[in-house]
Amino acid sequence: MSAQIWHAETAAAETTKIPSGLTGIWQGSDRFLLFTPANDNGTKPDVSLMLKTLYDWYYDRCAEPEYFSEYPRDLNSVTGKESVKLSADFSKISLTDDSASDGAWEISLTFQDKSNARIPVARLGNNLYLDFLVKYIPEQSDLLNQADSAAEENPLYGAWLGVGVASGITANAPYIQKELTSAYITHNSIYYIRYWQTDMEYSPLMATFSDGEQDFYIPKHIKSAGKIYTCVSGRSLQIRNVTRSPLVTDDFMLDSSGKILVYSKPYLTLLDSSTDDEKDIELYMQLAKDANCRRKPDPPPLFPPDNLNWHWKEINELEKNNAQIQAVRKRQREFAAKQYARQAQAE
């Protein structure tokens, strides 16, 4: 667990090693994502993005490392002349076992203009999420109350801190949300707590709210993606405007450790789980090749051919004594004769 989320834990150091939970090819509604190890000229893993453009009919390899040049890119009005270069660092932000595929990380993306963005992601099963919450484990036993004790019976109960803040894993800096939604879950209710971005210093203090029967505690500050979020104003520790709803457990999904919670749709789904980097790259390129070889079928005719009747005899009778139409027909015949002569001469 990272100190960027919980003050009770030691911060996880950034690493250039691609976490096992993020390897493979990931597919979303509008893109593919692949992390590849850095070559001898780099120190950070590379990020490859392929966008599904033109209503999913054309795949644009918009971001990829330089050594992908051995796989020629199609250049047209949809693509850029050169692909964008992205690199990544990773830091773990959950208590899950390092050997497990489920987990949460902050991906530190470095863009081509040298700018940087931190993107929290969580993996549950074969899905990758951008909007998720992580369980808060109280550091001091004197803050435990009846609801906290109940968390020992059911991992869903207790305080959950909002983490997801980025709009996506993109070739340019993504939009970073100004607000987070955290939650406190009891056996029959869920309390939603709003956090907003602030410029105050991070504090390990706890804020509190009450439902009229008992008090609940949750961290005053959350530090996520390099930003600080607070649920109270100034030095106050009293949370206002908490929204309470009945608990519907079917709306939530926990990871295998019970430390990560999601209630949104996945951002990406694992397409290929191979741990062979070369195999992943070959499959990634084949996806673009197969998609861009497709051709849309011809549209159906406006009228069924078998039902057409042009009534040529009647048309000829109508045109026979019309001098204007006959002049047009003459020009058409002369033009056709010239075209035929040119074609014969060329052959």
What does this structure look like?
The protein is elongated. It has four helices and 20 strands. It has 347 residues and is α+β, with helices and mostly antiparallel strands. The chain has helices spanning 146-150, 277-292, 312-320, 323-346, and strands at 25-27, 31-36, 46-53, 58-63, 87-92, 103-110, 116-124, 127-129, 133-135, 158-162, 179-185, 189-198, 206-210, 215-219, 221-224, 227-230, 243-246, 253-254, 260-262, 268-272.
Element layout with pairings:
Layout (H helix, E strand, L loop, with lengths): L24 E3 L3 E6 L9 E8 L4 E6 L23 E6 L10 E8 L5 E9 L2 E3 L3 E3 L10 H5 L7 E5 L16 E7 L3 E10 L7 E5 L4 E5 L1 E4 L2 E4 L12 E4 L6 E2 L5 E3 L5 E5 L4 H16 L19 H9 L2 H24 L1
Antiparallel strand pairs: 1-2, 1-20, 2-3, 3-4, 5-6, 6-7, 7-8, 8-20, 9-10, 9-19, 10-11, 11-12, 12-16, 12-17, 13-14, 15-16, 18-19
For the biggest β-sheet, the strand order reads 4-3-2-1-20-8-7-6-5
Number of beta-strand segments? 20
Question: Which structural class fits the helix and strand makeup?
Answer: alpha+beta
Question: Strand-and-helix sequence, N→C?
Answer: EEEEEEEEEHEEEEEEEEEEEHHH
Number of helices: 4
Contiguous low-pLDDT stretches (5 residues minimum) are 1-11
| Largest sheet entry | 9 strands, antiparallel
Q: How far apart are the termini?
A: 77 Å
> C-alpha Rg, in Å?
31 Å
Shape estimate? elongated
Strand content bin: 25-35%
Average pLDDT level? 86
State the helicity in percent bands: 10-25%
